[in-house]
Q: What sequence folds into this?
């Protein structure tokens, strides 16, 4: 049959085979077989990311320990974070991280990480101990909860020097805050001795022993303990600050300043080293240097009313009353800095430094003939601290009397001292 108008016919003519085409097909089949059996099994799925080797979490721990030995606590903290990311089931890394966070003032985070360790192992004595230690500092401070955690740690491991050291520090802080029982200091001393007997060379043992000697005003002994702690690790800024404060109490001002400067070199983000340097220069009458370091401290933490007041106090001693008023006003009344930073004022109390700020603020106001506010400060002092003879004298004579004299004989013009 043949369909007209179509090129298609049911009757096909058979073509003769082409040997060349057959040979090519045989080769192609061989290639496909080779690819299927050899190449494909050795090649992973296409468009799937190639797996990268996971870093050993222990290497992060070693790295963190090395950083800590070098005084690089923030880097050590980051390394512990990485170790936890790689292996979140190891409670020891959470404990180590929490310990470092206490050193850097991150108390709430330290509590959380100690509790993470306890979720993994409820019977970890160091986790309980570090949690108790961190609770000693975390706001709001709860000494009952802190002591309960530390007692739990001791129940699990009564011969751990570190736990006894933490317990001693908690008791000492409680004593210093006037929140403990009559025997709190005695208990702190006893716990520190237990820690010393168990591990006399432990850094934390020397540290807490130094702190207790400071509380009992045995400053020479405190210096030796802090020096021993620094011999264990000389790169912790807080130890140098504590050493400097005891040198200052002994009247060894050069040594104190050197200690504070060393602390600042280790942790420039902490304003307290510069603050204490300022106070030491203030104590020896070098007010220009005192103002220099007070300004350095304030640059780090401008919202801190203590640092605002300290700089204002140094300007007062330099006779720069306008500048003194500006900073003391922020320290006492609170307010907002020129850069928009909020400062909360310090209420009047019997604290020595607070009284210094109020006295110098009121006197500076009177000298500058800002008597409306000067009289307010004088009245606050007379009503608030009537038993402090120096402050009462300043209020009555240096503020009220000076303002009365100004009223009777107005000064030509208030002093205008340029800011430095």
A:
């Amino acid at each position: 049959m043949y369909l007209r108008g179509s090129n298609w016919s049911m009757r096909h003519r058979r073509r003769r085979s082409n040997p060349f085409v057959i040979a090519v097909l045989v080769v192609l089949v061989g290639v496909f077989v080779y690819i299927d059996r050899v190449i494909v099994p050795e090649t992973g799925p296409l468009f799937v990311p190639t797996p990268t080797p996971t870093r050993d979490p222990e290497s992060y721990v070693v790295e963190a320990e090395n950083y800590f030995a070098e005084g690089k606590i923030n880097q050590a903290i980051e390394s512990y974070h990485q170790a936890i990311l790689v292996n979140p089931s190891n409670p020891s890394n959470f404990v180590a991280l929490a310990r470092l966070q206490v050193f850097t003032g991150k108390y709430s985070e330290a509590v959380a990480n100690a509790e993470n360790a306890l979720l993994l192992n409820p019977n970890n004595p160091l986790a309980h101990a570090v949690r108790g230690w961190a609770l000693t500092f975390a706001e709001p401070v709860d000494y009952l909860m802190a002591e309960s955690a530390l007692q739990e740690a001791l129940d699990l491991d009564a011969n751990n020097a570190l736990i006894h050291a933490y317990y001693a520090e908690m008791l000492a802080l409680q004593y210093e805050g006037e929140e403990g029982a009559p025997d709190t200091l005695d208990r702190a001393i006893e716990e520190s001795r237990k820690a010393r007997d168990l591990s006399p060379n432990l850094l934390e043992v020397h540290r807490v022993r130094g702190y207790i000697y400071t509380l009992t005003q045995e400053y020479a002994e405190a210096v030796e303990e802090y020096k021993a702690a620094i011999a264990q690790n000389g790169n912790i800024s807080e130890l140098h600050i504590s050493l400097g404060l005891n040198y200052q109490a002994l009247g060894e001002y050069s040594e104190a300043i050197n200690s504070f400067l060393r602390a600042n070199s280790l942790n420039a983000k902490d304003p307290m080293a510069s603050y204490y340097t300022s106070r030491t220069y203030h104590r020896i009458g070098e007010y220009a240097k005192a103002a220099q370091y007070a300004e350095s401290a304030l640059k780090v933490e401008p919202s801190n009313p203590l640092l605002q007041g300290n700089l204002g106090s140094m300007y007062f001693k330099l006779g720069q009353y306008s500048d003194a008023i500006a900073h003391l006003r922020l320290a006492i009344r609170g307010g907002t800095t020129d850069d928009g930073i909020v400062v909360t004022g310090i209420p009047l109390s019997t604290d020595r430094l607070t009284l210094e700020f109020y006295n110098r603020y009121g006197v500076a106001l009177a000298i500058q003939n800002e008597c409306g506010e000067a009289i307010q400060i004088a009245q606050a002092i007379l009503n608030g601290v009537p038993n402090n003879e120096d402050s009462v004298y300043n209020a009555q004579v240096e503020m009220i009397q000076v303002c009365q004299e100004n009223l009777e004989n107005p000064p030509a013009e208030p002093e205008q001292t340029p800011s430095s």
